[in-house]
Write a structure and sequence with these properties.
Distance between the termini: 57 Å
Radius of gyration: 20 Å
Shape: elongated
Oligomer: single chain
Strand content: under 5%
Structural class: mainly alpha
Number of helices: 10
Largest sheet: none
Helix content: over 70%
Length: about 230
């Protein structure tokens, strides 16, 4: 194997190991990552880690993008596994997939949807991966609208909100009526509110039957959106 290929492979392996160690630190220390602590666990001097991630923020960004992509892939796979015409079934599958991923990766979920990391500002390259989970849910609404199985609700939006939603619709390239997009966003924010309350222990004592509660809530969301 040519030397450059060997170096590239070793570098890729080192980056993967650094991220794996950093994810373990997320589970114990939250987003308070320290490159020195990561290097210490790997038996390296801190300057060696800086050759792969010049700053803590670059390592956080890599972990955030990877987590968003993993969550997005889980939601998209659940959506693709259902009959495209079954809008409610797709919605249910996507919601359950998002929750399942979050419960399996609570530290990564907290990095994405928990408290902002002090001093960290997410760069633009996190935007695309962050849009994957909501884009899958919006895609269900778009397919329903195009096929005629889903109708837009009456437009009773305040004008400033309509303007905001029109900009979001343009960014997502959905061509969706603002009133329907508003209901879709209500479902999306409630979904991640449900997941966050469970991940962060806000409902654990009050609602021991959380699977049933989750399914009931996402059914209410589907009703609100108007999914047949």
């Amino acid at each position: 194997m040519p030397a450059p290929s060997i170096r590239a492979r070793v570098r890729a392996e080192m980056i993967a190991e650094i991220k794996a160690v950093a994810r373990r630190h997320l589970a114990t220390d939250g987003a308070n990552l320290s490159l020195r602590a990561v290097a210490r666990e790997m038996g390296m001097v801190s300057s060696a880690v800086y050759r792969y991630f010049p700053s803590r923020d670059e390592l956080l960004t890599a972990l955030i993008i990877e987590a968003y992509d993993a969550l997005g892939a889980a939601v998209e796979a659940a959506d693709a596994d259902r009959d495209p015409a079954d809008l409610r079934g797709r919605w249910t599958a996507c919601c359950r997939a998002a929750r399942h991923w979050a419960l399996a990766h609570p530290a990564e979920y907290a990095l994405l949807y928990g408290s902002p990391v002090p001093g960290y500002s997410a760069p633009a390259d996190t935007v695309g991966p962050a849009q994957r989970p909501p884009a899958a849910l919006v895609g269900i609404l778009h397919d329903g609208l195009v096929s005629g199985r889903l109708s837009a609700p009456p437009d009773e939006l305040p004008e400033p909100l309509r303007t905001d939603l029109a900009e979001i619709g343009t960014a997502l390239r959905t061509g969706m009526p603002e009133a329907l997009l508003a209901r879709g966003m209500a479902g999306w924010t409630q979904l991640f509110g449900l997941i966050s309350f469970e991940i962060f222990g806000r409902i654990n004592n009050a609602l021991p039957h959380r699977d049933d509660y989750f399914d009931h809530q996402i059914t209410l969301m589907a009703d609100l959106i108007g999914l047949p």
